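Project outcomes to date are best conveyed with an example. Our students and postdoctoral researchers have been running inverse folding experiments weekly, and each run begins with a structure described purely in tokens. The record below, which covers 530 residues, was selected by the lab manager from last quarter's runs and is presented without edits.
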């Protein structure tokens, strides 16, 4: 059973050239376990799902179909589309209306676009959703050309990347991060490890190969000190899917194995009935004689029962004692309908446990919010919102490193507002846009604005735009003018003698749950019989 990725810890308070080798050796043992588990999950998602049988197949062992439904990939693809299908953009944090701040955030988003962040986000998301963890590497763009990003943004393979946390701090902060490549011929590993202030190049976990010379070790290797990490931040950022560090389908692997076994056994039965063993009783087949000759010329006569072949007819007769010949396939009585229902039910339960909505509505006359509850979209949104809180934190750690790389770049003009941008000025904006919700969101925004709510409060409460602050900056005056016209119109009507009263239908400007309780057994189960 898979039990999530191991969080690697050390008791050291800081990493030095003197203790990095033993700490790295201990860390790599646990990392190799994680690497093997991630490889298993990637293979499982690709369809490498061997059929697990406690006992070998004894009846018709010549027919042994192994079928893979691969529900795991279906779960992965849904999560990649629903949770990561829209790019993570950066927006302003707070109500600061500084134009330089808005310009800096816009340029920061442009830098991400220049680094193909949308494509790399899907690469990162695949590792996070399948393996439970993913890693990004931020560095200064030393090959900068006009119009490109001031920093580089790359995704690292979690099978060759790890971080080490320190138990000496209450927040279990990361004090070491590393990645490595492996020589195909010799098997030697070449590590690149980062601390907050130092960068180490280490060969096979034995010796440091960069930095100043400090003498020789007891093995005779030159002892080096590493070199300065100019960012003064660990440039490898770890993304996690959950605090148990498990993949999106990892908990349901045993049930998926069982589903594959059910489908394989069902297929075996169909195949066995298609290639049935024929059973006869009270039937005499004709006997044919065959003559063979030995090497010495001696003839041998053998008798062989001639059985009907495919496409031939066989004729039987009722014997003199009244026995009726029987010719029938040897088959097992099988409940095909029950087996198919069991397979379908098991599949739906697995998808339900993985928070994957149904593709159709089986709840009767449900509409709107009721349909979301009945088909599982509400639960999927709840699970995605919970995961978003973790992703936001990981993205903020990435932004801190990005801003450090920008400030270190020699290509940033001294008047560029990016140099004054702080991590607390921005926040990630993760959007999950569902098409059927668009009309509801538009109606809700129109209602709030027409009732006097500010545009800022409205767009912050209802996730609809990529950058709410940009919308406020461009449309705020127009919305304000619209609200003033409504107030002036009402004041004018009252001055002309109008009572200002409205009918209940006019006062209700948008749909709400009262439209659905009469039609939806999901919201109001007391009306199910109706």
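After processing, the design step wrote out the following sequence:
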């Amino acid at each position: 059973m898979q039990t999530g990725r191991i969080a690697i810890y050390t008791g050291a308070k800081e990493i030095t050239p003197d203790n990095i080798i033993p700490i790295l050796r201990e860390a790599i043992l646990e990392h190799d376990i994680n690497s093997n588990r991630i490889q298993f999950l990637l293979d499982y998602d690709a369809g490498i799902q061997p059929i697990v049988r406690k006992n070998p197949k004894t009846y018709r062992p010549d027919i042994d179909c192994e079928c893979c439904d691969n529900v795991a990939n279906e779960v992965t693809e849904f999560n990649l589309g629903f949770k990561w299908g829209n790019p993570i953009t950066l927006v302003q944090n707070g109500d600061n209306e500084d134009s330089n701040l808005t310009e800096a955030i816009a340029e920061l988003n442009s830098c991400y676009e220049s680094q193909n962040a949308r494509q790399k986000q899907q690469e990162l998301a695949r590792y996070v959703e399948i393996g439970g963890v993913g890693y990004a590497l931020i560095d200064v763009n030393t090959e900068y050309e006009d119009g490109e990003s001031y920093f580089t943004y790359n995704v690292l393979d979690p099978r060759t990347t790890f971080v080490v946390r320190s138990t000496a701090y209450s927040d279990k902060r990361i004090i070491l991060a590393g990645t490595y490549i492996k020589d195909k011929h010799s098997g030697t590993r070449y590590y690149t490890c980062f601390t907050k202030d130092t960068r180490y190049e280490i060969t096979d976990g034995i010796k440091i190969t960069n930095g100043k010379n400090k003498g020789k070790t007891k093995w005779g290797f030159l002892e080096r000190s590493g070199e300065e990490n100019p960012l003064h931040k660990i440039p490898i950022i770890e993304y996690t899917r959950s605090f148990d560090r498990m993949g999106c389908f990892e908990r349901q692997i045993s049930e998926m194995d069982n589903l594959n076994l059910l489908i394989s056994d069902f297929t075996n039965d169909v195949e066995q009935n298609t290639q049935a063993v024929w059973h006869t009783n009270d039937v005499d087949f004709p006997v044919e004689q065959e003559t063979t000759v030995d090497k010495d010329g001696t003839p041998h006569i053998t008798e062989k029962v001639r059985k009907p072949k495919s496409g031939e007819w066989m004729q039987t007769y009722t014997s003199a004692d009244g026995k009726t010949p029987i010719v029938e396939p040897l088959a097992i009585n099988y409940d095909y309908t029950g087996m198919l229902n069991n397979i379908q039910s098991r599949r739906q339960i697995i998808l339900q446990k993985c928070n994957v909505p149904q593709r159709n509505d089986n709840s009767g006359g449900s509409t709107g919010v009721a349909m979301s509850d009945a088909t599982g979209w509400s639960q999927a949104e709840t699970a995605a919102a919970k995961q978003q809180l973790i992703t936001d934190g990981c993205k903020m750690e990435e932004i801190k490193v990005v801003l450090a790389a920008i400030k270190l770049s020699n290509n940033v003009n001294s008047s560029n507002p990016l140099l004054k941008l702080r991590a607390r000025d921005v926040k990630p904006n993760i959007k999950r846009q569902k098409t059927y919700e668009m009309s509801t969101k538009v109606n809700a925004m129109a209602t709030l604005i027409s009732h006097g709510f500010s545009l800022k409060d409205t767009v912050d409460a209802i996730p609809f735009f990529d950058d709410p602050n940009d919308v406020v900056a461009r449309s705020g005056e127009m919305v304000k003018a619209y609200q003033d016209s409504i107030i002036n119109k009402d004041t004018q009507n009252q001055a002309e003698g109008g009572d200002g009263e409205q009918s209940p239908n006019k006062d209700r400007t948008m749909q709400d749950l009262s439209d659905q309780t009469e039609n939806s057994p999901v919201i109001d189960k007391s009306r199910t019989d109706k």
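The chain has twelve helices and 18 strands. The longest helix spans residues 377-408. The training component of this project remains on track.
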